[in-house]
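As noted in the main text, all predictions were made from sequence alone. Below is one such record, for tRNA(Ile)-lysidine synthase.
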Amino acid sequence: MPTFSGEKQLIAHLGASSKWAIAFSGGADSFVLLVELEKIIRTHFANKIELLVVHVHHGLLEQADEWAQRCRLLCQQLNLPLVVKYVTVDNVGKGIEAAARKARYQAFSDIANEYDIHHFMTAHHLQDQAETLLFRMLRGTGVAGLQAMSETTSYEHYQLHRPFLMVNKKEIVERADKWSKALNWAYIQDPSNHDTHYARGVLREHIIPVLNQNWPMWQENLLRLSDIMKQEQHLLEELAESDYRYVAGLCDDTTKCCSDEVGELPDGAGLRGDTSLILSKPLNIASLRQLSPERQMNLLRFYLQKNGYKAPTQARLLEWIKQINQVHQMGTDRAARLSQEDVTLVLKDRKLRFSTSQ
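Prediction:
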């Protein structure tokens, strides 16, 4: 069998741990990931890496039980342990795709705790990356949302690795067909992948074919845009960190709040990219009001996200900024509470603080 372009990335990622879990739906992508991993562990690591196969059973389609059984048979053939994780998909207010994704990632977290495995692999590939960016653009995402998926993402209990992000779907399917013949095992073709009742089905059936025909480089162009947005997001966070220092009273001049001039923030760490750092100091409303509305929104978004809360919508941020400025104009002794589902901003005694919503 010819060399697979994703092999080097698989080998590089495997070096991070001696215990791994792989998300295995039974589709072409995860099938190739599984059999390539099994081969590499056997030939390059002398079977010294433990691999747990995880099949998340969403129960959304009538074939779900059959698919779980087919995955079980392949794992028996490869002599690999399989865990079938049954989940309940609660799609109230989220949409079925988002709800299924949330349930899947919760399953990964549960497996990480139960089996003491903190490195997962998924088979997201180049086309998944481009589809995700396109979907976010159509949904009206901001700069942060236009950044591509990372090869490695850290969650509370595990790291998620995506070694196939630069591998083309066409190569994966060709590889899957070869492995299917070699192992006498037919990979699963999920009909929902092209079901136009789902957003991604609409993209795949109606939008992407037009893009492929008229803009054949659209995927590469989107990824280039994503790289630019990553740089822009870094600048926005750098500006927000500087503004936080000023508005929290850690320095007295917006032009002198850079980290190299005033030293590190509390807790001895920089902020950009560090989602674990808690910014505990309240914000001075008068100082916040000296910033432009755009910088005020950028700072509030940064302030909440770095404390682990969901980013507010643009409309909610605009309303918050309006109320913050009105409270200040009416007098510094005025108080107000600005809420979203997971957090409340409290304006009192000339300061802005946040508390967890009840």
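Confidence is low (pLDDT under 50) at residues 266-270, 273-278. Residues 218-247 form the longest helix (30 residues). These features were considered when defining construct boundaries for the mutagenesis experiments described in Section 2.9.
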